[in-house]
Amino acid sequence: MKKLILLPLCLLALAACNDSKKAEERAQHERDSLMQVIDEKEMELNDIMGSINEVQEGFRLINEAEGRITVANGNPEATSSREVIRENLAFIQQTMQQNRDKIAQLREKLKTTSVNVEKLTKTIENLTAQLDEQNRRVQELEAQLAEKDIQIAEQGEQINALNENVSNLTADNQQKQETIQAQDKDLHSAWFVFGTKAELKEQKILQKGDVLKASDFNRDYFTKIDTRIDKEIKLYSKSAEILTNHPSGTYTLAKDAKGQYVLKITDPAKFWSASKYLVIQVK
């Protein structure tokens, strides 16, 4: 009898447990669905706010570029400043176009978003107004720069003319300097030769015991030197005799460690005062 009574009670308890479990599963499912909706809205809002922040950052960069143009515009004649102006104008135009595109994308997102549309619409309207204002300022700045370009072009012609004059003067000075240097070098140039008696006669440097008396001697046989620099001549001979006239006391003729003569000019100005040609006979 007791078993007959307990069986229905157990069945009722089991049914109650199943209903409770199903209710809990339904509640969990609803919570999951709600969290998914919340997550989707949060992602959607983050995406929109990210775009808005990008537009505002674009405005900030444009303002900085305008500031750089204003500073550079203080000296528009300078090539570097004009290059800065051109680069920053190009950057402004590019950034403004990017902002236009991003605002247009935001408008499209508002058509399908479930976020607070009214508030976002007002934000986008404010961004559009800022973009229009910046566009107006940029147009004014471009007009000012276009006007200054005319003045710069006129000044550029004057500067080019001055530069041409400076270039001509520089070329003239350079030519004069080269002429002076050449004259100075010639002024301090001298020629020497050493050789055996037979060699000197063959080159007509020595004729009938006279040195450089005839005008047809071979000048190419001589070596050219700078009297300010070349003050020592190695003769590579154990016998040497100076045939041309040079003041005594202005040079020494002595042998080196190998017993070969070396001519050392101790007073170049006086040594070369009598003759710019030096002839030495060796054996």
Descriptive overview:
- With 283 residues, this protein is of the alpha+beta class.
- It has two domains: 15-157, Methane Monooxygenase Hydroxylase, Chain G, domain 1 (Up-down Bundle), CATH 1.20.58; 186-282, no CATH class.
- Helices cover 65% and strands 13% of the residues.
- It has five helices and nine strands.
- It has helices at 2-72, 79-110, 117-187, 197-202, 268-271, and strands at residues 189-195, 206-207, 210-211, 223-226, 232-234, 240-242, 251-255, 261-265, 277-282.
- The strands form three sheets. Strands 4-1-9-6 form a four-stranded mixed beta sheet. A three-stranded antiparallel beta sheet has the order 5-8-7, with no helix packed on it.
- A hairpin with a 2-residue loop joins strand 2 and strand 3.
- Helix 1 runs antiparallel to helix 2.
- The protein is elongated.
- The mean pLDDT is 80.
Write the layout of secondary structure elements.
Elements: H1 2-72, H2 79-110, H3 117-187, E1 189-195, H4 197-202, E2 206-207, E3 210-211, E4 223-226, E5 232-234, E6 240-242, E7 251-255, E8 261-265, H5 268-271, E9 277-282
Parallel strand pairs: 1-9
Antiparallel strand pairs: 1-4, 2-3, 5-8, 6-9, 7-8
Helix pairs in contact: 1-2, 1-3, 2-3
